[in-house]
Amino acid sequence: MTVIIDTRHDLTLAGFSRAAWQGERLEPTRAALARVAAAREGFLRYLANLGDGSIYGVTSGWGYNARRRIQPDEQHAFDNRPLVAGAASFGDPLPTRVVRGILFARLANLIDGHSATTPRMVEAVVAMLNGERPVPPVPADGNGSAGEILALYHLFAPLSQTLDMAVKEKGGLVNGAPCAAALLADGALAAERRWALAAEVFALSFEAIRAPVESLDPLLGVLWNDADAAAALHLLGRLLADASDVRRGYQAPVSFRILPKVLGRALRAQRVAAAAANAALTAVTDNPVYIPPEAAHPDGRCFSTGGYHDANAVPALDALTANAADLCLLAERHATKLLDGAMSGLPDKLLPNAAAMPGGVGSVAYLPAAINGFLETARAAATVTLLPGAEGSGFGQDDIASPIFPAWHKHETAGRALERALAVLGVVASQALRVTDRGAPRALRDRLDRIRSLVAPVEEPSLRGLGSECGVLADAFRGEIYGIVAAGPG
Description:
2 domains, 4 strands, two-stranded antiparallel sheet, Fumarase C, Chain A, domain 2, mainly alpha, two-stranded parallel ribbon, Fumarase C, Chain B, domain 1
């Protein structure tokens, strides 16, 4: 399959999933390339008639040298200064899927002519995405610049060294906010899949403790005036549609009853992130930005903006991170309550090796403590990401750095912790169903079978350590979320 791009409005989250995550090829239309060429011609006319006017990074230097005029005899050397000189960040690389996503998002500035670059730049970026040009590793850390130039210098340095760059072409590669768009889109897609996984695992736990199904009545969504909680109620009700008629005769613990509310809030954050990602992927964020010819400006216009700073991506990622941490807490509470016979009403043989162990503690009993460790990791990540304001952090014009990379790091950390917490809860719920000789509702049978294929229930007293087995299950969950692109860094 091939993702066809005609205008920037084709650079959607769905297209991002196909090109960045699923590895599909991308192809610009001939009309798109013609539009880029026309914009380039208009820009060159505009530049020729500029006189003493200034265009950042075109007739002037970059950053600290923005007030310095580039002389005609300096132009070629300026345009062809290797990007590697600014590749100052370092550390572990971004996952392959994210780098592909940055290349995908990079096209938003180019494809409608707003970077005033040449069609060959569009074709070169597409060639990188399609594996026809080299794609270097891009560090995930140390990207503390005002825009995203440190990461983009790494990404496009080989391209800048193999092509003779014309005026404004290099700036069209490294200015703007494709990293913010890609990191947000990556987080939104992962959150969507984690949410679906969490709903299934929590539904298994709900069934394992025999929680009254009345707390999932669809009417509650109406009473609560909460469309997202109503959607969670609907999904949980469908997953438990043919649940056992034998239920507790009294209410379940709070962590079970508030499940649709917490899942609903997570769904809301996911919707907001997806909408923000769609907007960011199609947004023109170049600096300076070129406005193609129009009636009042026959050669177009070109001027500086702050479009490269995405003010919506960071809070959207922070909300996803916070919800991942809260779902980790619910997972820990569910597992703890299932293992507490006085609270769950389940038999003591839920811990079949307890009697055989000194002190009477079985291996299953240790599992909530593992979730608690993952919970604390997620909670530590779930902090508000503010604009960096450290004294001395502003160099020249670049006096506020972009916080998008730290926000994505925190979401990745909390998301991985949630995957691990859900793996442990899935094993505890599986154990509870096994010792009470119950199966799963029809919609959850595949999920239970997949859990047991990697972590079989503890049947006899043994010294079995379940941590490594839960780790294998957590890795399987991660592969399920990210699909084929889970291979490679990250």
